[in-house]
Specification:
The protein is mostly beta strands. 0% of the residues lie in helices and 54% in strands. It is globular. The two termini are 27 Å apart.
């Protein structure tokens, strides 16, 4: 079973000097639950919970296929479902949500282990079917003591 490059029992933090914006807890080797907090810069603009609310995600490895899946929801009824796998040292999951005017918005999240023991989370989105990508969130996971 491929191991997800996302630490369990960790906090999600944006660049240094900004507050913790989420936390992760593992239930097993193949299930990870994260919760975003209702802060102004995270998660990406298309998927933002109201202030003070939480937006949970569930990451699970499908035993049959060996692929990872994430389901992300918020209190406004937004749903993002991602799928992917471990490639080299990074876990990359992709998915899509309805965008404005009937177009779809693509989302790609990559978790990459760093030498300092943290894990970088890069969340990108595309409004043009993946031709160009913009950074929606660039943060890191730090293990809790």
């Amino acid at each position: 079973m491929p191991e997800m490059a996302q630490p369990s029992d960790a906090d999600q933090v944006p660049p240094p000097g900004r507050p913790v914006i989420g936390s992760s807890e593992s239930s097993s080797a193949t299930l990870l639950r994260s919760v975003w907090r209702g802060l102004s810069r995270a998660p990406p603009r298309a998927l933002r919970p109201t202030a003070g609310a939480g937006a949970p995600s569930y990451n699970i490895c499908d035993r049959a296929s060996g692929r990872w899946h994430q389901t992300w929801v918020d209190d406004a009824g937004l749903l993002l479902q991602l799928e992917g796998s471990l490639q080299d040292r990074a876990m990359t999951l992709q998915g899509r949500v309805p965008g404005g005017g009937g177009a779809e918005q693509l989302h790609r999240i990559t978790w990459t282990p760093r030498d300092d023991g943290t894990i970088r989370q890069l969340w990108e989105q595309s409004d043009d079917a993946g031709r160009t990508w913009s950074v929606a969130f660039d943060g890191r996971y730090v293990r809790r003591p």
